[in-house]
Amino acid sequence: MEKHILKDRITIITGAGRGLGEALCYGFAEEGAIIFPWDIDSENLQRVAEQLEKKNALGKKGVVDITDEKQVESEIGLIESEFKRVDVMIANAGILYSYEITDFPAHQWRRIIDVNLTGYFICAKYAAKVMKKQKKGVILQINSKSGKKGSYWNSGYAASKFGGIGLTQSMALDLAPFGIRVNAICPGNILESPLWQTSLFQQYARKWGMSVEEVKRKYIEQVPLGRSCTYRDVINVAVFLASDYADYMTGQAVNVTGGQEMR
Ligand SMILES: NC(=O)c1ccc[n+]([C@@H]2O[C@H](COP(=O)([O-])OP(=O)(O)OC[C@H]3O[C@@H](n4cnc5c(N)ncnc54)[C@H](O)[C@@H]3O)[C@@H](O)[C@H]2O)c1
Fold first, then answer.
1. CB of 117 closer than 6 A to ligand 1?
2. Is the predicted pLDDT of residue 2 greater than 80, yes or no?
3. Whether the model pTM is above 0.90
4. Which CATH superfamily is domain 10-188+230-262 in?
5. Ligand 1 atom at minimum distance from 93 CA
6. Considering only CA atoms, which residue is closest to atom 38 of ligand 1?
């Protein structure tokens, strides 16, 4: 692929303050996109915005809670009036609370659905309003392998991600006549991410009476290609799906799992 295949594309990335969202910001910046990072964590967001500024890739940062329809509508309105378009919306922000089903507090379950599913819907809805006028645009959801297969102690997360694939396909149908493509990416376990490093490894080690190293080995052994999913693996597929190389792809949920879903 040629370099800078996303040159000057106005790209909103949610949950951009850390983890995969932050990595997507830099990966898309490398391809020439102009980045609009959104997060609720204003300190992390500021750090990412400064990095993007140094790369000459910052549009405008947004302290935006994706579950708040008014905030999303207003921020997209500002981008449209100043920059005239929205080319790519990446719905990456996501949360996870892990409980066995009979212990799952309903308010935590609802919060997961609110951020992972309704937040995706709200961001896609307002991005699509601008994209319809342009007759072109790309909406990408960062889903998960848990969007296709049930997940132990993770009913809320899996339900939100399964829902995300239904939403992706339905929006793809609604928006195809307007030249807008909607796809999802389903990554495997990104063991380098803060989610794993600061929380899941310790939780699972305690739950299963294992060391963190043993937990890590257990997850890597589930992957036919024999390694963890990396940010770069996801960036490569996201850049492709956002680019014109993927012009004939819509309504898809693409696995980036090293083959893990076959096991
Ligand atoms: N880490 C993994 O192994 C993995 C694997 C598959 C899929 N995913 C998916 O990738 C995405 C990113 O995961 P991550 O591991 O980087 O997570 P993370 O927790 O490191 O980062 C998520 C970011 O989203 C922000 N956020 C949370 N709620 C928000 C809201 N209401 N509005 C705006 N921002 C909000 C957080 O402040 C945080 O900066 C998620 O959708 C997750 O489900 C992650």
1. no
2. no
3. yes
4. NAD(P)-binding Rossmann-like Domain (3.40.50.720)
5. 24
6. 15
